[in-house]
Amino acid sequence: MSDTPLSDTHLSETKRVLRFLLVGSLAAAVNWIARIALSASFAPALSFEMAVLIAYAIGMTSGFLLYRAYVFPDAGLPMAVQLRRFIAVNLVSAVEVWLVAVVLLRMVVPALGIGLEVMPIAEALAHGIAIAIGAATSYVGHKLLTFRSAQVVEAA
After folding, report:
1. Which helix (H) or strand (E) holds 65?
2. How confident is the model over 30-57, as pLDDT tens digits?
3. DSSP 10
4. Nearest CA among 32, 14, 50 for reference residue 134
5. Angle at which helices 8-42 and 48-66 pack, to 10 degrees?
6. Whether residue 114 has pLDDT greater than 90
């Protein structure tokens, strides 16, 4: 075992990952609560599937502003470039979140024999699990594309 302390780069990246998880959790909570509010307010006229997509857009908006300010403040790219890339990364993640949520709710929940009496709980769990899975995809995409430093862009 080495007595060499962790490098500043490693510590910096660890702090960035922790900030991403914290800020991402806040954006995910906005997403999750928005879906619950939408479903409670507009069901059955608004389907679960549409509520997930609308809530994702709400969470995505808060996420962009929070990530830019607290996780990747040194990216150095123009906001318009970051926003376009953020939307692209999140479109991929949105499809992933939507598919996981719908598969869990429409296929896994019935296979487990869960009845309609607990459907709001099943919806909340399916959506929450899907958001958690989408977080990993988002981090990689945002680190490598959306908020990468201007120096990395110039070198590429």
Report:
1. helix 48-66
2. 999 999 999 999 989 999 999 999 998 9
3. H
4. 32
5. 140
6. no
The structure tokens listed for 6 are 């962790």
Residue 77 structure tokens: 């790219």
71's tokens: 């996780």
Determine the Cα–Cα distance for residues 141 and 127; give it in Å rounded to an integer.
21
The letter for the amino acid at 92 is: V
The residue assigned the tokens 């862009």 is 153
Angstrom distance (rounded) from CA 28 to CA 32? 6
CB atoms near residue 71 (< 10 Å): 24
Give how far Cα 28 sits from Cα of 23, 32, 34, Å: 9, 6, 10
Query: What's the pTM value of the predicted model, to 2 decimals?
Result: 0.69
